Amino acid sequence: MQWTQKVPAPKQIYQNSIYTQTMKLSNELALRQEKIRALMLQSNIDAALITCNVNILYTCGQVLSGYCYLPAVGEPWYFIKRPSGLKGKNIHYIRKPEQVAEILNEKGISFPETLMLEGDELPFTEYTRLANIFPSSKCVNGTPVIRAARSIKTDVEIELFRQAGAAHTRAYMQIPSVYREGMDDRHFSFEIERIMRLEGCLGIFRVFGQSMEIFFGSVLAGNNAEAPSPYDFALGGKGLSPALPGGLNGTKLEKGNTVMVDLGGNFNGYMCDMSRVFSIGKISEEAYKAHQVCLDIQSEVVAMAKPGAVCETLYNKAIDIVTKAGFKDHFMGTKQQAKFVGHGIGLEINEAPVFAPRVKQELQPGMVFALEPKIVLPGVGPVGIENSWVVNEHGVEKLTLCPEEIIDLENSIIA
Amino acid sequence: MQWTQKVPAPKQIYQNSIYTQTMKLSNELALRQEKIRALMLQSNIDAALITCNVNILYTCGQVLSGYCYLPAVGEPWYFIKRPSGLKGKNIHYIRKPEQVAEILNEKGISFPETLMLEGDELPFTEYTRLANIFPSSKCVNGTPVIRAARSIKTDVEIELFRQAGAAHTRAYMQIPSVYREGMDDRHFSFEIERIMRLEGCLGIFRVFGQSMEIFFGSVLAGNNAEAPSPYDFALGGKGLSPALPGGLNGTKLEKGNTVMVDLGGNFNGYMCDMSRVFSIGKISEEAYKAHQVCLDIQSEVVAMAKPGAVCETLYNKAIDIVTKAGFKDHFMGTKQQAKFVGHGIGLEINEAPVFAPRVKQELQPGMVFALEPKIVLPGVGPVGIENSWVVNEHGVEKLTLCPEEIIDLENSIIA
What we know:
The structure is a homodimer. Chain A is α+β, with helices and mostly antiparallel strands. Chain A has helices at residues 13-18, 27-42, 53-60, 98-106, 124-133, 143-151, 155-172, 175-178, 185-198, 285-304, 311-324, and strands at residues 47-50, 65-71, 77-82, 91-93, 114-117, 138-141, 217-221, 258-266, 271-273, 276-279, 342-344, 351-355, 368-371, 374-377, 381-384, 387-391, 396-398, 407-408. In chain A, a hairpin with a 4-residue loop joins strand 8 (258-266) and strand 9. Chains A, B: This is Xaa-Pro aminopeptidase. Chains A, B: It comes from Bacteroides luti. Chains A, B: Keywords: Aminopeptidase, Hydrolase, Protease.
């Protein structure tokens, strides 16, 4: 595919078929709930009370303010505060969570012996309040269970990821057309953000973990890619303000430097992830070589990425290659180096599995991950690659289809 | 001020004077910590362990991954995971929070009898882990204490808000220039988002409460302003996807309709808040009248807004006026109505105080709030106003200075 080629528009299956304003429990939602239930049964958990936005989106098909009460066996119940006007089976409007127990009681539903709550996501006081509603229940942390279920995508989720990948690709293909001589990383990013929005990007960048935050993604030029940040993303950046110390910082796009675009591809809730590198004129031979090392890491790791492959092994493979090539000290940063080379993606940018040291988890069909070998060269900037991939029965399918060479912004063909 | 007039650029005091990469404890940071300590002493709390991003930004002057240990009496200690390379007094690098207790122990700091943790913000499992590090301490929820301290801004914070207000104003003044016939709310919003970014907006929209989320703010056109959303913002909107059911939804900007722009003015960490209404051609007489009712509410409420004014009284005043004018059923929404007319702003968009029923809190000098009387008219769209205000000794100072009439996008003077 050439940088000037058009990518077809995705169909809007997300809005028009599965997800409905009436919360009719389609097969898809039942399937997702079943995946959670199966794991609950394995852990002797009798019911889940789910309320965090991404988990509500996963189980109910839309973000709601309210609660999904999901027994391991039996029908799910929905207790909703907002929005008004939803109708459907087992839907009850409430003002406060204490009504959940009252209504279940009225309906003759016996309280669970073991109840799971979203312990890694719910604030302490909210968790405690919900636990107090079920005083006879033993409460356990359900976040790992739900995240495990979410880590294996359904066919519908994979199709949504394909559509996100196509839209993400369509947006990135237009990047060379917005470059103008004399730009800094801000102007470059703002024009790409606009293209992403025009292609349908929802903008919101959902991350797991209360200390993780980012706006739209990261555009890193020149030496700013070396700047350490408080956030645990693949690369840092100084940012424009101590109020958000990550990403672009006003670095001018200068001849002989690179700029890496890594904006979040949330077009339908699913966080597609892709990075591409651009240069201003020619860059050093070392930089082209380092980029090729990252492409080689991608090829080799992807060739190993099939059901049964161990995450740690994939990480170690990347480290092996980059060490032999002599770029280990510049891999995933210089002053501060990220300790992973890939990560699961889904409704959040950082899902299971993680390709990192000591992670013994094996790949399974239905997992979707981003692989992002990146090298930072002082005086030049970041090089490398990131694509999103679906694990299938035999290997992987690539979701993000832009060309992977470094594009010279001063000499690209603009349609 | 006319819509075509230029607003002067803010000085960059945020980046260049107060907040330093070496975390030197300026008077400003000491003052903020002192405000928290004073409230801790009132509540017999001996120490705070602070780690959530906004509270770290408040007490340390920048977002960090780590912990600020703040005793009610004695020196603060900083335990940092990321970024690398910070130097200063009482700064220690750690890998895990358990080291906080180890190092305090080594330094001969006695553990607190009562320790406050960010209970409304920290996930349950993180709170529990931190509490277990101090097994002899009684742990209490410190979020209300920190939020109370943050609700009274320092002079420096007020100056930062003035700069944010000026930048926000400068961006909004350019809104009429990006309108083109045939646009929908998406195209209109994306161009305004770009202007906001070019004027320095960091983009990130910080909200208190795990269930609240929004991208950049809200642009609501025509009947979409009536659509109920799960989020507790002033108005809803259907959104582009069930994955983010709030805000714009692709409504075409049609003759006789209005569109309200309410994007988050985060230019330096402080969330300035402003809404303005635009029309496509002339709108109904009723709509102009409803807009004037909102301006009247603003005038009357602002005239009462001085130290000692009770939030509930301000809310009731707004309800009185809108009820007498006959627009009560359209105030703050139609199908779903927000139950507040103003809210504190700061590092998050929803701080104390809130102008809502049963809120007995009194205004104090240094509070900063947004007042947003809005009316939604089916067949036309949203009208009304929102400005940001600082409470001073005698009354209030306005931060957001755009003209307040409804601007006809088809007939505005474009520079």
